[in-house]
Amino acid sequence: MKALITGSNGFIGSHLSTEFEKNGYEVIKSDLTEGGGNIAMDIMNPAVIQSVLEKYKPDVIINMAGQANVGLSWKKPQLTVQLNTVGLINILESVKAVNSEIRVIAIGSSDEYGSLKESGSNVTEDIPVKPVTPYAISKQAQELFAQLYVQSYGMDICMIRLFNLGGAGQSKGYMISDFSSGIAEVELGKKDVMSVGNLESARDYTHVKDACRAVRLIVEKGHVGEVYNICSGTTHTVQEVLDKLIAMAKTEIKVVQDPARMRPSDTPVVCGNHDKLTAHTGWQPKYGIDEILKDALTYWREQN
């Protein structure tokens, strides 16, 4: 089996490549630029996508390319929609032209659910989506196009909504990485204190390795046209995550709350439900929050 992974240089893409290679796949890694084992494939260039499909003949495409920063999506909504929505359409059009039997995995986000309020304690795929950021809208639009191509052309597409991930290699801008990198900097004397925001909200965190295994199982066993949550089904408060990381620190960590970051959350708890994923593929998470935090902290210590 040949798997084409777009965005293979990214946090999830790099782990996905490892997961698929370990399980006997021939992996075609692609990113914007060539090098390091990657081929160059710009998902905004349909002609390039089509030529890659004709040359490498993948059995499955996992599309990790795109714009994943929610904050940036407010500043550059056009770019976000181009990369996340039009990018997938370009892939689907190329697949339709070259070989419509290629399985395509479209990667969405739990952000598509929007402000869940009381529904946040058990988020199933059946809960109506209400995206409230340009990023979330771009991912929901991507999903709607994927469903359209399944219904109109009979194409083989599965859709995923990823909840919060953690582990080695995640960039700053995400809570676990920001906390882990901050502790690593305090340990080295680069700064004296860590600034934090609201510590009360509870979120669902999945190890990136578990998430990549889930993607592989969806490739192998997922049902055409279905949407799958990838989540742990458990929650941890921000305070709990911070306390666990501080307990792993090699020095005393002083924490101060930044008033600018103290925005209350309108969804105090977000806990995903992976019953459908488990029923269709047998997937269960193997790693807990402690392994996620240990791997993230080790990574940031190595970066410093």
CATH class of the largest domain: Alpha Beta
Strand line-up of the largest beta sheet: 3-2-1-4-5-6-11
Largest sheet: 7 strands, parallel
* Helix/strand structural class: alpha/beta
Question: What is the number of E strands?
Answer: 13
Molecular shape: globular
Question: Could you please describe the fold and organization of this structure?
Answer:
This protein is an alpha/beta fold and 304 residues long. It has two domains: 2-166 and 205-233 and 271-285, 3-Layer(aba) Sandwich (Rossmann fold); 175-201 and 235-269 and 295-303, UDP-galactose 4-epimerase, domain 1 (Alpha-Beta Complex). The chain has helices spanning 11-22, 46-56, 70-75, 77-98, 134-153, 175-187, 208-221, 238-248, 275-281, 289-303, and strands at 2-6, 26-31, 38-40, 60-63, 103-109, 157-162, 164-166, 193-196, 202-203, 205-207, 227-230, 236-237, 254-257. The strands form four sheets. A seven-stranded parallel sheet has the order 3-2-1-4-5-6-11, with helices on both faces. Strands 7-10 form a two-stranded parallel sheet. A two-stranded parallel sheet has the order 8-13. Helix 6 (175-187) runs parallel beside helix 8 (238-248). It is globular, with a radius of gyration of 19 Å. The model has no long low-confidence stretch (mean pLDDT 94).
